[in-house]
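Q: Can someone sanity-check these two? First one:
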Amino acid sequence: MTFVFSNDEGAEIECLGPLWVRRYDGLGLSRLRRITKSGPQQHGETLTAALWQGRVITMNLRFQATSEPELEALRDELYDIMNPSTTFYLDSRRASGDVRRLDVLFSDGLSGMRRANGLYYIQEDTVQLTCSSVFPYTAEWAEERYGPPAGADLAETHEVYYPGTWAAVPILCFYGPMTGPACQNLTTGDELAFLPGASVPAGEYWEVDLRYGNKTARDGDGVSVLEYLANPTDLATFAVDVSPEAPGGLNRLRASGSGCNGNSYTTIRYQVRWRGV
């Protein structure tokens, strides 16, 4: 497995020389926190829930430059990417060619320890990273598009095979004109729907971002439209799911709405997520 560090400013370091990853830990399954309860006269405990703990990654790095100035420049480049106040990316490229990404934050290490009698322009160091999300994902977005409908009503169902091992939380976009827009996962029974009288105007769109840390519904100007969501609606649980909720990873996703024309359509965008790298 090979690794790439990068950030949103376009900086990138591929760890295939002169920076190498010699050892790593924390890229498999994260730790679980089990929640239990017990009653009077009960021997043992009853498991009520199991939650994934935060992921911590440790990497042993080797700098092997051709000169001391090159080593110094490489260290500065790595320090710039690992800004402790901003999230950056760790991409892990598997032998199959698949790439799985984690959003990470610098936590500890890179102290610059070096032996006085060490080899010139060669250095080893260790870095510890924490992850803002436990589950690695593919950087590319998958998209399902529904519509435009042949008539005034949108009612379209797609059977989507999802290859991940953890559910994907999507971003839904409804492009007007459309009244009462909704999406259903017919496999799991979850639905995200707006009130029957709520209308997306022609030439505009409403976006519902279900990702953790977001859970927003806004129009194209960024104004919240959460008040128009139907009650109940599965804002917290709507997902492109995995087995056993979606046996074999097959999800039947349906988009609907009324008052449409040839410019009306709905998109479901998501990134495939995995339990581990």
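And here is the second, same format, sequence then tokens:
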Amino acid sequence: MTKSGSLQAGPARLLSRRSLLIVPGLSVLAVASCGDESNDRHFAGDPRTAPAGSTVPPQQTSVARAGSPTAAATAMETLDLISPRGSGAIGLIPLRHELIVVHANPAEGRSIWSNDDRALWSAVADPTSTIVAALTSDDNSATDWTVEFIPVDGGDIVTVPVGAASGKEHAPDAVAEGRGGLAWLPDSGSVVVSLPSGGLLQVFPDGSQVKLAKAAIAKRPQAVALSQDGGAIAFVEQPTGSDGSGIYAGSMRAKPIDPIVVLPPDRSGNRYARDVQWIGESDRLATILEREELGSPQGDLFFLDVHNPTPQLAWTSPSGRDPASVESFSISPDGLVTAFVTNPARSGVGKTSSVWVMQTDGPSIERFDLPMKIADPRIVFSSDGLIVTGLTGRIADEDGLPAGFLLAPNGKIELIYQQAPGATPVASPSGSPIASPVASPVASPASPSPQPVTSVE
């Protein structure tokens, strides 16, 4: 991707390991208390939010969030905030032995891959939404890894075995919890793979592979992300089975990569980074930090600058009777909007998931309640709106039932796919509106100003 002006200098700075290593104070970081008391937080349901059944109002202007790169960000109007900002056309629902693709236009869901002998760890669609890459292993063990290149509209599936050429795969003391990681490398037709059992690889459909990091460097890599120009990589890593996970980044100009620490892993094992994405064309990353210090895990959304060791808190649920946890997020291609899904941190009858759409570097934020709670949510910025997919009715280790929703540009939530119990996923309903408020007027988690994480000596 061609860049202009000062944006060209951003990735170049990232590519210099030396410039990153001179940043002082890369010590263990502790997350600030989630009960922030800043006075410029924004609640859904305040005078800027429409009541149930009304049209979406223009967004009022307000002061910029503290810590924002601009001195005074202009608030986005609600219609602009939720307008389509992506070119993606599909959402994905990975099950253990099956992969379902969900379309918004026309509204449908269908199975594009299934194999009872293989376990599906991760899946990601290419930028054109025509091919899905899937990471699979033997159903009974984290071995015999393959990357499957699956045509969305049918055709031959290409299977590429990956792993140690000697046949002896790295075996950590505990495979990291999660589904591994995949990311398409822009303008290459290849994917970057993080194997939960260790190592980073670049894999092409013709079977060729490039080792990006051996298992001794990336012992338990999880989520992985590539910058928009493909020049930089970031990934979540858990150094040992007793550590929490941190975030590492490096240049893709020289391979194998030589990663540096962006967020140190928590040696106490109480803080875990989940997922990572680049924010637009900047040198910033977004991640979920899941903390277990107080018992039940709670996920908060953070932004990180690779040149600054202090993460910035982007969203957290205040302390209270019904705290919420960030389950997944997505950054719009232009970096202006961040969407995320929250679930109640405590289980209970009638509690549902919420979709939040937030101005990345400004005060605007809106909340939209789904009609049900979904597990393993995913968000895609599409040309039709926000596609949100996940699993409903999950019990214990069972997959649950796949479902897909569309947050349309008019602010309405539409059910575009839901698999009935015992039904095959090729049966797909037409899109139907959900009786749900444009933005919930009930008391809702706050969006405080970004707060720095306290550095611990």
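A (reply): Looked at the second one. The two ends are 40 Å apart (CA to CA). Confidence is low (pLDDT under 50) at residues 1-71, 425-457.
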